[in-house]
Specification:
Two copies of one chain form a homodimer. Chain A folds into two domains: 121 residues, Nucleotidyltransferase, domain 5 (2-Layer Sandwich), CATH 3.30.420.40; 141 residues, 2-Layer Sandwich (Nucleotidyltransferase, domain 5), CATH 3.30.420. In chain A, 34% of the residues lie in helices and 22% in strands. Chain A contains eight helices and twelve strands. The longest helix of chain A has 21 residues. Chains A and B meet through helix 6 of A and helix 6 of B.
């Protein structure tokens, strides 16, 4: 039986786990913090303690470089997160003795893979996975393969009509993420999303933004299914508002994909990291 | 030596040709018209006259169905073009004796493939091909494979901020195509794009719309190269205005892909149809 290591390094917290295709055997969660060397040390210590491992999958917050032919492969690149810009996180694991075959990708691509293989996206030929939480991130899986392009998509940074002029993205102000993710919602509505009752009109305002961005991704990517998750995105009252509005915007021009919540909850990323590990063995 | 048939069926004109990887040997161009049976008869007559053929590639205006596993494979589907909605164009060729292996795709995907193989996109790992003419259409080629998704992208039908309220798309009003393609430009500026001098401010207004839509596609698809063509899109003064504005909008968050004109001129579609024919042989 093969044994996989999985790493989900998010902007806020890191998960490191050991397990296999059937699930997680043991895991540890800790704040990602501002010191990548310390975080990678903790990851390496955990993996050594629970090895030996056949392969490792690593899903990282972005922007990062998952292209094995690139000079900066395995680096977190132009992130605004303090301490992490231009950091060779895979190199840090290698220098700490993690020698098993390893696949590095974005955290959202890992979660998309997890949902495609084990969650709500099973059977989809063209899956769009979108997470709305402290940011907006998207991953697309076509025929079981992650869409990378030259680097990786940054779907949260598209611009949409109807976005309020004020947004909190440090790069783009009122891009989709700048107005549609947690911090943008809190700035606009004067309270965090989790404190807004389901029947408050703030959810309708958010649904309009979410549906507009999703319709653009439907036009760009032609998904057959949309899995919408994340702390904000998973809310059922948001789904109920987005579905009809998305259909209205598309206006019958192309088929409207089904919109469903994730099937794996907060396990999507780490289960997807195991799928990445499996791909490293191929 | 293999001999290919190629069909480029656009909303306005149809091109049918016979040739091979080195180029077109013989071709015929005629108005697509409102009668698909008559158009497919003319295509079949031409191909029979210049056969026998080893394979055929067919690039069609859309929306259409290029998914071989679908019930409506080879159909033009929800087009507003009179006479053509829900028409089994591949079936019309089959019933007229065109029996060679055939690949059916969108006209814009065919042109994208042509540019990737023989034109300005040679060597690109993640090519975005965009044409702006009577409509806006986009195709993406990743590692030499066309991105289809569930059906095919309809990149011209995204919504962008800053679009004038008035647009001419019969489905979406002021979507990207509704304001950025020829008919939308003519409605806004009071004259067709080809009558607008290169130094007129109308081009700056258009460049803003083009750059905004392209930046969204960069975020969704992560291309390493953008080939921008079409009767409107190919204009050098438009390229000169779009390039810096695209970089401004992206704001350093991800690499800005190079923006180049097509290398094949009006041959991209038909050369791409030959690439589709070659794929039908594989």
């Amino acid at each position: 039986m093969v044994k996989f290591g999985g790493i989900e390094s998010g902007g806020t917290k890191t998960v490191v786990a050991v397990g296999d295709a059937s699930g997680v055997d043991v895991e540890e969660r800790f704040p990602t913090g501002d010191d990548p060397a310390a975080a990678m040390q903790r990851v390496a210590d955990f993996l050594h303690a629970h090895g030996p491992l056949d392969a490792v999958g690593f899903g990282s917050f972005g922007p990062c470089d998952p292209n094995p032919r690139s000079r900066t492969y395995g680096h977190v690149t132009s992130t605004p997160k303090p301490g992490w810009a231009n950091t060779d996180v895979v190199g840090m694991l290698r220098s700490r003795g993690i020698a098993a075959p390893l696949t590095f990708d974005t955290d959202v691509n890992a979660a998309a893979l997890g949902e495609w293989r084990y969650g709500a996206g099973t059977g989809s030929e063209a899956l769009l996975y979108l997470t709305i939480g402290t940011g907006i991130g998207g991953g697309a899986i076509f025929g079981g393969r992650v869409l990378h392009g030259a680097v990786h998509p940054e779907m949260g940074h598209q611009r949409i009509p109807g976005a309020p002029a004020e947004g909190v993205c440090p790069y783009h102000g009122n891009c989709w993420e700048g107005v549609g993710a947690g911090p943008g919602i809190a700035a606009r509505e004067g309270r965090p999303a989790q404190d807004i009752p389901p029947d408050d009109d703030a959810w309708r305002r958010l649904a309009e933004l979410v549906a507009m961005g999703l319709s653009n991704l439907v036009m760009a990517l032609s998904p057959d299914l949309i899995v919408l998750g994340g702390g904000v995105g998973i809310q059922p009252h948001l789904h109920d508002l987005v579905r009809p509005r998305l259909a209205e915007i598309i206006a019958g021009y192309v088929p409207v994909p089904a919109l469903v919540p994730p099937g794996l909850g907060n396990q999507a990323g780490i289960r997807g990291a195991f799928v990445l590990a499996e791909q490293a063995l191929d």
